[in-house]
Design brief:
Elements: H1 7-11, E1 23-24, E2 27-28, H2 39-56, H3 59-68, E3 73-78, H4 84-95, E4 99-103, H5 117-125, E5 130-135, H6 140-149, E6 157-162, H7 168-181, E7 192-196, H8 203-211, E8 219-223, H9 232-240, E9 245-248, E10 260-263, E11 299-301, H10 324-342, H11 346-350
Parallel strand pairs: 3-4, 3-5, 5-6, 7-8, 7-10, 8-9, 10-11
Antiparallel strand pairs: 1-2
Helix pairs in contact: 2-3, 2-10, 4-10, 5-6, 7-8, 7-10
Bound molecules: N-carbamoyl-L-aspartate.
N-carbamoyl-L-aspartate binds near residues 85, 204, 264 and 304.
Length: about 350
Amino acid sequence: MAEKLSWEDFKDLKGHDKKDYFLKDGKIFHVILPQQFDRNYLDDLCDLTTKIKKIDATITGRRFLKSLLNDKEAILYFTQPSTRTYLSFNTACDKLGITHGGVRDAKMSSEMKGESPEDSVITASQYCDLIIMRSPIEDLAEKMAFKMNSSKQQTPIINAGSGKDQHPTQALLDVYTWGQAFNDYEGIDGTSIAFVGDLKRGRTVRSLAYLMKNYKDVCLYFVAPKELQVEPDLKVYLREHEIPFEEHDSLEDVISKVDVVYMTRIQDEYDSGGESIQIDYDKFRFKPEYLAKIKSSTVIMHPLPRRKTQELPEIIDDDRRAIYWEQTKNGMFVRMALISSIFGKDNDILNY
Ligand code: NCD
């Protein structure tokens, strides 16, 4: 049992030390931070995802999946823009038989009448068995999970994106897709990745980098304009866990040696005064001529959305090494695996 703490004391704990507070009966219940996952959990979740994909390929399998959680209700509370994360959670719920409703815009909720986002989420928890939430407030999902532990409701919270900070379910679908791409080798172990773009404000890169402590012999290359390089807290974490990394300011420098090129867009919605326009993004663009420079086994990933005229032109889509649409699709299956494991349905699926 995790010790009872005040929110003030809890929020200052290191990510890893918070993990017990996100468990119920020894199993992951709230999904808040990538630091809460260990290698066994990640491997099991990936196996469960592959099994769900197979089951979903037949009509009887789909009927089985839809019967699994048809006594559950979810609320999707999304107060930041989203296409893939929202749609994939939405569809994951549908496919598992979970009925769902939600908030997609704080302007259409009582937050416009002065209600706090916390009270909005507590309200949601009165009506459902699961809350999936995306918010610009970095610690809101974590705070709500903490609060749920001592509330009557005990509703599990899934963080579907918390400001510039974390996007743990994206990191899960990223490791699934990356591992599958290197399935014939050792999986993620022993591979290298270039993270390219706005690494300061991009939460997908932060979350995926945090997960790397679970893999052996990985090497990370952070390729970004100086003003958008990774934050010091992430570098401290990587050093603490002896995960090798290098910083670069041109994709061309590393393009031919890495196994994964993970492109990202500039996160200009976080600009304070249009500063992104000043940045020359040319060295952080995946140019068509790079297709001849990358290895035949290298894969190109992107959490999407992309800017076709900026970091990733459409012509790259035709190359077999571009796997970002697979990432998108896998997102739905990984989220089905995650939700079914929160509700203890993993064994029913594995035994199907
Ligand atoms: C990302 C996000 O919201 O952080 N999108 C996503 O969930 N796939 C990446 C982005 O917005 O750039």
